[in-house]
Design a protein that fits this description.
The chain is built from 2 helices and 9 strands; from the N terminus they run αββββαβββββ. The protein is of the alpha+beta class and 197 residues long. Strands 1, 2, 3, 4, 5, 6, 7, 8 and 9 form a 9-stranded antiparallel β-sheet that branches.
């Protein structure tokens, strides 16, 4: 007859499995997965002193939002440059060309969060942005415009203003620097749609 008290694994393995199940259940209740209900993220820039507007086409997005511990939230974005626009054909061709975003070689822009800070419906999302194969740390700022939704059992249709300031020179996207400003401001409204977990 086997003495179970001498076999520690007999007790430890079921205990570990039970803990893993409890942790996974807790995570599922604490976090929800969303996608950004937006095809385009608008940006502003200057040609000389003239303000211009364009957009980056959003190909994929996922926002895992932890309502109890916002700093454990995660955001991933992927932009398709070849479907994006700088506002008109000449500017778009210049933006996608080799001296700026070089979309032929680097067709996508990627963002992945590293830290999320939240206070009073304001989120600072710090992460890594990759443009032209160059990765830099940037901060996206997001403001929740309809916080009353958080009181609902199903937290859907969250509406945010998103803002980020980027410098073309940080990513060697310096073409036309004598006529186009270095700073690009991403500024747009998005809605988060709840995904099935």
């Amino acid at each position: 007859m086997v003495d179970l008290t001498k076999n520690k694994n007999f007790f430890i393995l079921p205990l570990l499995l039970s803990l893993l199940i409890l942790v996974s259940v807790k995570i599922n209740f604490a976090s929800d997965k969303f996608t950004l209900n937006a095809e385009r993220i608008k940006f502003n820039y200057f040609v000389g002193i003239i303000p211009m507007e364009g957009f980056f086409t959003l190909k994929d997005s996922i926002f895992v939002l932890n309502f109890k511990k916002p700093n454990q939230s995660k955001l991933k974005l992927k932009f398709d440059l070849n479907s994006s626009s700088a506002g008109f054909d000449l500017a778009t061709n210049a933006m996608l060309g080799e001296t700026v975003l070089y979309a032929e070689k680097y067709p996508y822009i990627y963002f992945e969060s590293k830290k999320v800070f939240a206070k009073d419906n304001q989120f600072n999302i710090k992460g890594s942005l990759t443009i032209r194969g160059i990765t830099k740390n940037v901060t996206f700022k997001a403001k929740l415009n309809n916080p009353s939704v958080l009181k609902n059992k199903v937290k859907n249709n969250l509406q945010f203003d998103i803002y980020a300031e980027l410098k073309r020179s940080d990513f060697n996207a310096t073409g036309y620097q004598y006529i186009v400003g270095d700073v690009i401001n991403l500024k747009t409204k998005v809605e988060l749609l709840l995904l099935d977990n």
